[in-house]
Amino acid sequence: MVLLQSPAVRVALSVAIATGLYGLSFGALSVAAGLDLLQTMALSLLLFSGGSQFAFIGVIAGGGSGISALSAATLLGIRNGVYGMQINVLLRPTRWRKLAMAHLTIDESVATATGQSDPDEQRRGFWAAGAGVFVLWNLFTLVGALAGNAMGDPARWGLDGAAVAAFLGLLWPRIRAKEPAAIAVVCAVVTLIAVPLVPPGVPILIAAVVAAVLGLSGLGPATEGLEPDVEPYPLGSAAHGAKGDA
User: Fold this and answer.
1) Euclidean distance between CA atoms 209 and 145, whole angstroms
2) Contact 137, 19 (CB under 8 A)
3) In 92-176, which residue ranges form alpha helices assigned H by DSSP?
């Protein structure tokens, strides 16, 4: 089979291109938050988890400490560990592949792999999406960081608060039901109360603890929040069911 004839690879490439372009925003916002080019690229190459990366620079941009930023990024990265267990069972990687797959286990690669019914297509989809996003995300992060440096003082362009806004933009689509919306409101109130009382960066951690407690209390489905953000087949169940026959 020619690789580009694989339905999983075609889907993976389209997802990789769309996701990779967001790296422009991350690169520019990371520089605006105070990180230099090398720090931005190290964060993108080594952490490689969009939500966690935006959380990190969001806390830094708000004046938080490195520990607070790291804690916020870690909290968002927990679900990647859940994804890893799923991929380990689904694809059963061995030796060096296990380490490589661990680094490439993100929303896009998991969604593409689990959207296939054929084991070979699952494997192709995972690698194509994971590697594709990794290359393009880091490439566009570099472009965005260089552009951000060229723009000078971020406050002139309103970018000093844009990292927080970008993280909110990532969060907003997940609030689709009453339970997540209620939890979001409670956490927002807790954050507003905590801001004048604790150091920068700590309010988001307090809000995360509140969210975890409310989530563990049994509100909503047990899997709420653990599904990949990406739906590789946006046309609905008909397209999803036909993909294996392509």
Assistant:
1) 32
2) yes
3) 96-104, 107-114, 119-151, 162-171
Burial tier of 134 (Cβ tally within 10 Å: 0-12, 13-18, 19+): buried
What's the rounded Cα separation, in Å, for the pair 85 and 98? 11
Neighbours of 171 (CB within 10 A): 15
CA dihedral 218, 222, 224, 226 (to 10 degrees): 130
Looking at residue 157, its pLDDT comes to 57
Which among 157, 134, 152, 147 is positioned nearest to 53, based on CA atoms? 134
Closest to 22 measured CA to CA, from 176, 157, 133: 133
Give me the pLDDT at residue 159, please.
Answer: 53
154 alpha-carbon distance from chain centroid: 24
In terms of C-beta distances under 8 Å and separation of at least 24 residues, what long-range contacts does 191-199 make, across chains too? Answer: 199/64, 199/65, 199/68
**Cα–Cα nearest to 54, from 38, 37, 75:** 75
Per-residue pLDDT tens over the stretch 186-225:
888 988 898 888 777 677 778 778 877 877 776 555 555 5
Please say whether the beta carbons of 200 and 68 come within 8 A: yes
Note the pLDDT of residue 220: 56
Note the pLDDT of residue 238.
Answer: 42
Quick one: pLDDT at residue 61? 82
Which sign does the torsion angle of CA 193, 196, 201, 206 carry?
Answer: negative
The percent of residues above 90 in pLDDT, for the chain, comes to 26
Which residue numbers in the chain have pLDDT < 70? 1-2, 151-177, 201, 218-227, 229-246
